[in-house]
Q: What sequence folds into this?
């Protein structure tokens, strides 16, 4: 890996001593915890995209309000701010903004590529699958009769098939990253306050982006930007300043209590018998827990989860270097590629399960094979990038491309 | 010798277990937890106690019906009626349908008051969510529509059972059923209405190998059998939730 050396070689932005608990600005080492959890989020997203099976019970959405998407967006904000803020120091605002837009273009192309695969699968189902039991559900494929509209709406990011909502959100968030970074680097706390304000206004006035053919974006960028900006704010020194808060016992107790509460509430969804023990006033106040607009309960759940994790999983934990976690960490280091491979594998897994009428056993095997393929692909990408930078040709470019490629 | 003995034991063990297995796994049986509920159906219970007619109205979309000449007779509302009549001899049971293809929960909720004034059922089975999922209606709006609809049903003095989406494994990449099923479950709990979890029940059948819901089928055969099983499962839920003891009828 070239990144650690690249980071150590330059500590201009990095404040010299990050707090003990704080996440890592300036310690010079690549923050493996970020890679670990982003990799984990990618694995969980992949598992959640497959039909429910045994592994689904391992995903965190069954144990609380938030799920892998929160982790993914927060860490993406964190790493993006980390990388591009450094770029702004080195090359200036214009050049680094251009690099961000290049990245946005890559994500857009990846999204369109996935859409093509999706269209291929759906078209196949539409022409080869017929069952009078599902005549109503098949009606949803009617959009294939209007490719002129459907494809254009997809290119405009308005038509988004199931499970393809994260990349469009990411595109919009990245598009506004130059502006957000510009603010965050000058007036970090005001910038964060503005993000909170936009979030509050979204809840008040219902800002949303329209989707095709009906409704709004599944992940509302006006609300989800809060998590992204908060990640960026943490990367630019916020985490260090929050270190005393994170270290306090009160925070820990509050976080644990909230996590237990969320766990109990989630349990009532799966075990209806427990439902009677949930006060009605609490229910009417709490529900619905809105994922589209990043419900406060979800955001708080993510914060509690992060607080507990940061406290107990130190960044010098030797386990981070263990070969067992290596696959997850590698996946986290190549998130865009691995995310796309994960979405593709989920489509492919669906297809195999449908073609073979596979049972729970095959389902489990497919999930595991998917995780192995994702890990192998991540390893291959790391190897390739290491080789390219070893060849010594324009090392600076190779390094920066690597950094960009890693958020 | 030893191998033969072991093989013999295995065969014996298998023979000992098989009848028990055959006994416990009826075709398209539903796991007990999917049909047990703490919520009651007081109106149906009262009607049964008084031996007065039980009128059920199924409000739904196209997945509550089958096409073809025998479609109506094969679909689950008709099979449900037959199952309920068989279980409650002597009781006047009628099941009618009021289907609204291509209409969302909000569209239907707006018409409920009028429907109830005309039909005056004891129990309404509201099958909903499919059209909303297909049109990706905002889950909040879907929930609000359910709230309004159930309130109107309960105001018209009827028991309510909610029915969720079908399990359609082939469509999982296109149709996001989870959100709508989750909303239906929560709303049902809040309003004290039993949920007929059609999705989980059909998935259980698919996993048990009772039906191959992945395969394509040109004839109505599989669909008719699925609907027959759905109708019977629904009758079990009604009997359980209304605390009906069919043995009371036999005594008389």
A:
């Amino acid at each position: 890996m070239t990144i650690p050396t690249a980071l150590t070689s330059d500590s201009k932005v990095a404040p010299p001593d990050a707090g003990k608990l704080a996440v890592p600005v300036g310690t010079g080492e690549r923050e493996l915890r970020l890679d670990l959890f982003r990799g984990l989020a990618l694995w969980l997203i992949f598992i959640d995209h497959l039909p429910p099976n045994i592994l689904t019970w391992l995903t965190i959405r069954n144990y609380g309000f938030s799920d892998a998407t929160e982790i993914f967006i927060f860490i993406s904000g964190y790493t993006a701010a980390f990388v591009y803020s450094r770029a702004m120091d080195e090359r200036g605002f214009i050049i680094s903004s251009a690099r961000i837009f290049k990245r946005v273009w890559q994500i857009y192309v990846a999204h369109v590529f996935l859409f093509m695969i999706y269209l291929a699968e759906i078209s196949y189902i539409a022409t080869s699958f017929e069952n009078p039991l599902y005549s109503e559900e098949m009606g949803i494929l009617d959009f294939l009769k209007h490719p002129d509209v459907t494809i254009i709406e997809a290119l405009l990011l308005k038509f988004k098939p199931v499970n393809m909502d994260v990349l469009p959100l990411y595109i919009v968030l990245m598009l506004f990253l130059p502006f957000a970074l510009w603010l965050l680097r000058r007036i970090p706390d005001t910038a964060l306050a503005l993000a909170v304000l936009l979030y509050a206004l979204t809840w008040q006035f219902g800002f949303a982006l329209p989707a095709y053919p009906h409704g709004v974006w599944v992940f509302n960028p006006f609300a989800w930007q809060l998590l992204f900006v908060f990640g960026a704010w943490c990367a630019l020194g916020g985490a260090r300043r929050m270190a005393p808060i994170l270290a306090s016992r009160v925070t820990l107790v509050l976080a644990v209590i909230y996590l237990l509460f969320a766990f109990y509430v989630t349990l009532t969804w799966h075990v209806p018998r427990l439902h009677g023990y949930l006060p009605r006033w609490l229910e009417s106040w709490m529900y619905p827990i809105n994922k589209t607009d990043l419900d406060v309960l979800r955001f708080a759940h993510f914060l509690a989860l992060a607080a507990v994790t940061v406290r107990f999983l130190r960044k010098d934990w030797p386990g981070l270097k263990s070969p067992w976690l290596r696959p997850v960490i590698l996946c986290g280091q190549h998130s865009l590629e691995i995310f796309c491979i994960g979405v593709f594998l989920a489509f492919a897994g669906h297809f195999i399960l449908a073609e073979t009428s596979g049972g729970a056993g095959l389902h489990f095997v497919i999930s595991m094979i998917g995780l192995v393929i994702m890990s192998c692909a991540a390893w291959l990408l790391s190897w390739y990038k290491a080789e390219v930078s070893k060849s010594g040709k324009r090392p600076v470019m190779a390094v920066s491309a690597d950094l960009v490629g890693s958020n | 010798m030893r191998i033969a003995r072991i093989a013999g034991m295995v065969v014996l063990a298998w023979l000992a277990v098989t009848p028990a297995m055959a006994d416990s796994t009826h075709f398209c049986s539903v796991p007990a937890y999917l049909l047990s509920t703490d919520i009651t159906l007081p109106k149906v219970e009262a009607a049964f106690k008084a031996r007065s007619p039980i009128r059920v109205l199924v409000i739904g979309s196209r997945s509550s019906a089958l096409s073809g000449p025998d479609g109506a007779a094969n679909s689950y509302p008709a099979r449900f009626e037959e199952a309920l009549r068989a279980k409650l001899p002597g009781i006047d049971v009628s099941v009618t349908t009021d289907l609204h293809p291509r209409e969302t929960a909000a569209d239907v909720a707006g018409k409920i008051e009028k429907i109830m004034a005309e039909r005056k059922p004891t129990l309404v089975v509201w099958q909903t969510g499919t059209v909303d999922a297909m049109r990706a209606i905002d889950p909040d709006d879907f929930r609000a529509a359910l709230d309004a609809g159930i309130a109107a049903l309960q105001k018209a003095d009827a028991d309510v059972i909610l029915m969720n989406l079908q399990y359609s494994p082939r469509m999982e990449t296109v149709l996001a059923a989870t959100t709508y099923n989750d909303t239906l479950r929560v709303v049902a709990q809040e309003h004290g209405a039993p949920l007929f979890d059609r999705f989980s029940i059909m998935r259980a059948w698919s996993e048990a190998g009772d039906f191959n819901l992945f395969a394509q089928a040109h004839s109505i055969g599989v669909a008719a059998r699925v609907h027959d099983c759905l109708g019977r499962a629904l009758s079990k839920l009604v009997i359980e939730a209304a605390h009906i003891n069919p043995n009371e009828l036999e005594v008389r």
Summary: The first helix of chain A runs from residue 3 to 8. The radius of gyration of chain A is 22 Å. DSSP finds 17 helices and no strands in chain A.
